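User: Okay, second chain of the day. Same drill as before: sequence in, structure tokens out.
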Amino acid sequence: MPSFRILPCQGRTEQDEGEEDSAANTAFSATLGVVGGLAPEEWVANNVSAQLEEIRDGANEFRSRDSKKMLGDEQLSWVQRETQDSVDSGTKWQLYGSPSVMQDLLLANFDAAVEQQTDRETKAVWEESLFNITHPNTTFFDMSGLVHTKSFEGQPLPVDPGMLAQSRAALAFGRYGITIDYDSWQGYAADRERFLCAVENATNVVVYSGDYHSSFAGLLKKDGKTVGPEFVTTSVTTAGWPDFDPFRGIPPQMLNAAWNASNEDVLYANLYTHGFNLVTLTPGNQHLEILDVNIDHTGYTSACVAAFDYAADSETPRELVFGDCEPIPEATPYSEAWETSLGVGRSVSLF
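Assistant: Same drill. Structure tokens below.
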């Protein structure tokens, strides 16, 4: 019997492509208009909570509309049929490839990250960093680690008015759970539920996705029950969220922790990795390693920064656990690597 079947999930259908961009711009600009001119300590006196909650609720209503479809009826029926055929044939794993992130990924909650930090010195650094980017007449240090900002490292940089307003908006997005991403499955919440219904009876579900320029590992759930894990694969070279002006002044550990704090079903968040994922699939386990590639110079090297195991047929609740990094295979010519990826065992997977 086959060990696994890979099912691709295609992109949007039956949707005006400009509608999501318009909604995202509306939520972003509305939040910017409410808090852009106010320091965070002034928010209570100016009663911004009610306004931000209204923006959040409007965003959630938009993304939850039943009429919004990512797949469409025909593709959804195909997924359900192929999944059932895979189960009936005794296939051990059902692997789904998605061009965009499926789970909800709310933006970084800096307040929660600071509150959860137990080391006093680290907490003080995080509080100072957050204060600096949300207040005028301050400076920040670029901690993005991006190639095009290397020349600024170690230099105090001014927080200009544009960065100041955006930093305050970024703080509000996380504090109030405001969604500004409607182009991924997060913007199609009802259709995502339909997809999870279509696959929830599969033997062992794993979803691989991307287009977020960051690495995430988490669980997809329906009605509180785990359907399967999702692994979000980063970009190879393209910058991600650390290139967003407000986040350039945030320590990497803080930004990762803030993303984790916003999303309870995310086990791992790393916005600074660039590279690929390495998957080892056996009848009993799916082992995935996140490989970070040094892209700062031509002497490219890769290192495993995190590994995860997801056991087949495990008891409820299904668990995604941290695993051990294994020695990285030696590089092989492209044609040999491609042939290896079609066989059984460790294969390089660029999603």
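Residues 17-35 form the longest helix (19 residues).

User: Thanks, on to the next one.
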